Amino acid sequence: MTTDAAGAEIARRRTKSRLGRLALEALAYLRGEIRASEVWLVVIAAAVGAAAGLATIGVGLAAHTLQQTFYGINFDERLSALVKIPHERLIALPIGGALLAGATWLWLKRRPSAPVDPVEANALHGGRMSLRDSLFVGFQTIVSNGFGASVGLEAAYAQLGGAFASVTGRAFNLRRSDLRTLVGAGAGAAIAAAFGAPFTGAFYAFEIVIGSYTVANIAPVVAAALAASLVASLAHFEPLVVQLPTGGDLQPSHYLLFAGLGLISAGFGVLVMRLVGWTEMLTGRLPGPRQLRPIIGGVLLAGLAWISPQTLSAGHGAMHLDLTATLTWTALVFLIATKALASVVSLGFGFRGGLFFASLYLGALVGRLYALAVGAVGVSIDPLAASLVGMGALAVAVVGGPFTMSFLVLQTTGDFGLTAATLTGSLVASVLVREAFGYSFSTWRLHLRGETIRSAHDVGWLRTLTAGRMMRTGADNIAADASLAEFRRRFPLGSTRRVVALDEDGRYAGIVPVAAVYADPDGEGIVSELMINREEWLQPQMSIKQIMAAFDRTESDELAVLDDGRKPLGIVSEAYATRRYAEELEKNRRDLVGGE
């Protein structure tokens, strides 16, 4: 290399180094500004919302392109609206299952842990999500829906929107509460773009992903939802709902009827969720590799689609078709049964997606059937109104979010009276499902994996308060067979409050209160005679809930923390555990209300 070339290379490297330092300084400045001002958080949320809107458009177009390729539909057609499908095209379902099985098998070889969705991220991980895992979830959902499985794309929309928000928030080093808000804003923005309904997306974020509605989170969430909706509108992305007229005014008695529809929707929603869980359990017992389940599921779905093409995909086209069609009792029961079965088979056999839109479609059919049933006993209600109320109520039973679904009906009809009726049925469904079942579909799936969360409320901080993290190490110890005289010689009164007694193998034997030894200063005997909590101790992984239960049970002030071999690791006091819990609870309360 010549002298001039070497000099140019050195200059280039110095310039690159200066640019790198400037970029880091700019990022550090932005981090400080964002943490100091809520305005910056709103700006970032709007940018995340726009990105979520673009991701929603991309996912929707990718899935629809696959449907066009394998089923020969036009761009403006919906797969589930087809009256008849050539039987040879149904081979796409087992082919899609095979593709999904192979891709999942390869992925799990490298990343065996389950991806974290926005609800789990906000409940347990402070809003932290993996973009790589989320992109793969998006791929799985596109393949599942694009090849015709009865799952919706909303899971991919929310997953990618939440992941973009999580990565962005971590890049700016946001606080835990702000990161959770941003993840909710990203997921809600994606839903807003999909349905062309900003308020639906915003309340999806509040009710389902964040778990609360506060002054601190309203501005960023709404900004993200509006930005996503604007992007989708500018791109002429067709929303998943259409404007529908409704007929007649609602009377007070109608609200009681719609409350009854909410009751029926709650029972049906719980049944569908349990059927998915039972199907997953049964398919897990099938011989052969677990990854082959989607191929079997694809064959079963092809059989259902041969009987009823409306079972294919999420059901957007079928819903638009059936909302205004004249359907008999037999047709409604048939459509409800086949669509519910197709959704259960799709999810139970390993296809990826959600029940969001399937629950909307099924709810519309259940509402229409309910209108026929009450009409048979002489009570007349508008079938379209019943369909829309049923749509909202069943979606609330499965997904959650009474206001989310009520705003969706408002977006669909522009009818405030019908929106109030939907809210009535939705609240009845929500209360009954929470009381009798306790889970939405997303938290039910987590429950089947062994988690205990029931909503997106932040409980992850509780899991940091473990015995292993709160214990004080270096506790004094003595042999259990040592004399009391030796104990008094080694531990004068006032030097410590308790001493851990060990057996001959160095394992925990009990705790000796110093005060008990000095109750009789000249007393004879051995240490083991005064030991307490011989069979009561803590383990490092125990949560604050388990720790406080142990203190209540033993009525002790301090408990030892032991490893699996009963070797002492430290001591946890009830007073310290209570204080740490109170500190974290107050910090979480300040985050919730936006205080300092």
Give the helix/strand layout:
Layout lengths: L2 H34 L1 H34 L20 H19 L7 H7 L6 H16 L7 H18 L4 H20 L2 H13 L4 H20 L17 H33 L8 H15 L8 H8 L5 H20 L7 H21 L6 H16 L3 H12 L2 H21 L4 H8 L18 H4 L6 E3 L4 H7 L7 E5 L5 E6 H4 L26 H11 L3 E5 L5 E6 H20 L3
Parallel strand pairs: 1-2
Antiparallel strand pairs: 2-3, 4-5
Helix pairs in contact: 1-2, 2-5, 2-6, 2-7, 2-9, 3-5, 3-11, 4-7, 5-6, 6-7, 7-8, 7-9, 8-9, 8-16, 10-13, 10-15, 10-17, 11-13, 12-14, 13-14, 14-15, 15-16, 15-17, 16-17, 22-23
Question: Would you kindly provide a written description of the structure presented here, covering whatever features stand out?
Answer:
- This protein folds into four domains: 1-30; 31-234, Clc chloride channel (Orthogonal Bundle), CATH 1.10.3080; 252-457, Orthogonal Bundle (Clc chloride channel), CATH 1.10.3080; 462-584, CBS-domain (Roll).
- Helix content is 64%, strand content 4%.
- The protein has helices at 3-36, 38-71, 92-110, 118-124, 131-146, 154-171, 176-195, 198-210, 215-234, 252-284, 293-307, 316-323, 329-348, 356-376, 383-398, 402-413, 416-436, 441-448, 467-470, 484-490, 514-517, 544-554, 574-593; strands at residues 477-479, 498-502, 508-513, 558-562, 568-573.
- Strand 1, helix 20 (484-490) and strand 2 form a beta-alpha-beta unit.
